[in-house]
Write a structure and sequence with these properties.
Blueprint (H helix, E strand, L loop, with lengths): L8 E2 L2 E2 H10 L5 E4 L4 H11 L3 H6 L8 E4 L8 H11 L6 E4 L3 E3 L3 H11 L3 E7 L10 E5 L5 E6 L11 E9 L10 H9 L4 H11 L4 E5 L4 E3 L3 H14 L9 E3 L2 E3 L4 H16 L3 E3 L2 E3 L4 E2 L4 E3 L2 E2 L4 E2 L4 E3 L2 E2 L4 E2 L4 E3 L2 E2 L4 E2 L4 E3 L2 E2 L4 E2 L4 E3 L2 E2 L4 E2 L4 E3 L2 E2 L1
Parallel strand pairs: 3-4, 7-11, 14-16, 15-18, 16-19, 17-20, 18-21, 19-22, 20-23, 21-24, 22-25, 23-26, 24-27, 25-28, 26-29, 27-30, 28-31, 29-32, 30-33, 31-34
Antiparallel strand pairs: 1-2, 5-10, 6-12, 7-10, 8-9, 8-10, 13-14
Length: about 400
């Protein structure tokens, strides 16, 4: 995709919105975003600004939520981003560090009390992973009965190499002293070598140095949405789990969640409901409908999310899929178990199954896309058949 992970559309909002609101509702008031590169920075800055919009949503004064950004200095890993921010903004206090591609439910007060009670240099939120075959995607920790991490293995190749089933969630508390870690000794060697990833380099080094690194085992919800399957799973789970308020939903009808509260939005929503009752439309299961969408006659939607400003023409069938904002779907199109990116235009009589379609893609009439990935801004010709393909 051509979008930073934090700005991916998630339940018709940007993913970063869920992270900031989760933290802000627990008392966090200052946010420092470790972004690098022009695209990542501009997208986040244009969306978040200095935090005034989030303050408004929380009924706070516009200066009570502050969002700041990493300076335009290239970082060589997430640990260096933290170091850069601490130096640039002269931060001399413990920090909560959260990766931008996760969804979580952690009680920060409990986490912070644990961190201080243990006298930890760093505390890592851990989560039990039931499926051992997935351990290779994460850092895995071995802890003693007190919670201190004795060994940390980043992305073990086989389950036998993993010291436990406790995985790193990418949520940390780092003590103020972390700012000085790279000034001497092992930390300085890592810095000079550019080995500055928390999981691969820094956490094992902290443990080897004898510094107190603790694991806080969380029972709360957590998703890593770094791949399409995990993204889709988390969307469907959160759609069922979150309240209307948390989803920014204005009202529900027969399991359908509607967004939008202006007079025009209400008119469009009433139109959809009237047509459902007449049988002109069919919408079943867990469904989220964004603002100002158009649904043609004979449209059928099952267990799916349709983002704002999307047009779905007559007799189109959408099942177990996510359609992002400002898409255009032609008539008699079938979309099953797929993710459709932003500003995608799809012709008539198109079939898309088990696929990922990037932003700003055009798919011509009568095309077939099955078990495939299409990168952003690509063109699929009319009648073209793609199976088990990657279009880059």
């Amino acid at each position: 995709m051509d979008t930073s992970k934090a700005m991916i559309r998630f339940l018709n909002r940007n993913l970063i919105d869920f992270t900031i609101m989760k933290l802000a509702r627990q008392g966090i008031r200052e946010f420092y975003l470790g972004v690098s590169g022009y695209v990542n920075y501009v997208g986040l800055f244009d969306h978040l600004g200095s935090g005034e919009a989030f303050a408004y949503k929380l009924n706070l004064h516009d200066s009570e939520i502050r969002v700041r950004y990493q300076p335009n200095i290239e970082s060589r890993g997430n640990a260096e981003s933290v170091k850069l921010i601490m130096d640039y903004y002269d931060l001399n206090e413990d920090l909560v560090v959260v990766q931008g591609d996760t969804l979580f439910d952690v009680a920060l007060s409990d986490l912070y009390y644990f961190h201080k009670d243990k006298g930890a240099y760093m505390t890592i939120v851990l989560k039990e992973l039931e499926d051992e075959s997935k351990l290779r995607h994460f850092g895995v920790a071995d802890i003693n009965p007190d919670g201190q991490i004795l060994r940390f293995v980043e992305k073990p190749q086989t389950p036998s190499e993993a010291p436990s089933n406790l995985i790193n969630t990418g949520i940390y508390i780092v003590s103020a002293e972390f700012r000085d870690f790279f000034s001497s000794g092992v930390g300085k060697n890592l810095y000079e070598a550019g080995e500055l990833d928390f999981g691969r380099n820094v956490i094992p080094a902290l443990i080897d140095c004898g510094l107190k690194v603790y694991g806080y085992v969380s029972k709360g919800l957590w998703f890593d949405i770094g791949n399409p399957d995990a993204y889709k799973e988390s969307v469907h789970y959160m759609l069922r789990a979150l309240s209307d308020e948390e989803l920014n939903v204005d009202f529900s009808y027969s399991g359908i969640r509607f967004m939008g509260k202006t007079a025009l939005s209400r008119k469009l929503q009433r139109n959809i409901i009237d047509r459902l009752e007449k049988g002109d439309l069919k919408i079943e299961g867990d469904v989220l409908l964004g603002r100002h969408i158009f649904l043609g006659n004979g449209v059928k939607i099952l267990n799916s999310v349709i983002d704002h400003y999307t047009v779905v023409n007559d007799e189109t069938f959408i099942d177990d899929s996510i359609i992002m904002d400002r898409c255009f779907l032609g008539g008699r199109t079938v979309i099953i178990n797929s993710i459709i990116g932003r500003h995608v235009k799809i012709g008539n009589n198109v079939t898309i199954k088990n696929s990922l379609i990037g932003n700003n893609v055009f798919i011509g009439n009568n095309a077939v896309v099955i078990n495939s990935k299409i990168w952003p801004q690509k063109y699929v010709a009319p009648h073209q058949i793609l199976k088990d393909s990657v279009v880059t």
